[in-house]
Amino acid sequence: MQFMVVETFRNQDAKSIYRRLRDKGRMMPENLKFVSSWVSADLGRCFQLMEADDITLLQRWAAEWSDLIEFEIVPVAQGKDTGAVLAPRVDIALKHSANHGAERHGKVAMDSLPYLV
To answer: What is the pTM of this model?
Structure first.
């Protein structure tokens, strides 16, 4: 599974976080995979995409950093995967709406909708 980890740096202290990262590395348990990260322009937060089959791996990792970082861990799916799951339901809903006068508004094909990146 993929997780979006939103890290809020306590006291906006990015220097302490990067110092520990330099000295000790990410301190991640085996089988927790770092995919990518982005840091906010004000250096107050970091957004990391992580992969793990076991949520407790993320919990162990977060515990190592909890003195410097407040964590929000959100299970996520790629937009294209969610679109594929919802496509049949959207088509049914659009057909149902068409039977109730929605045809005058036009039908949007699921494959023409943008997916979130």
So the answer is: 0.72
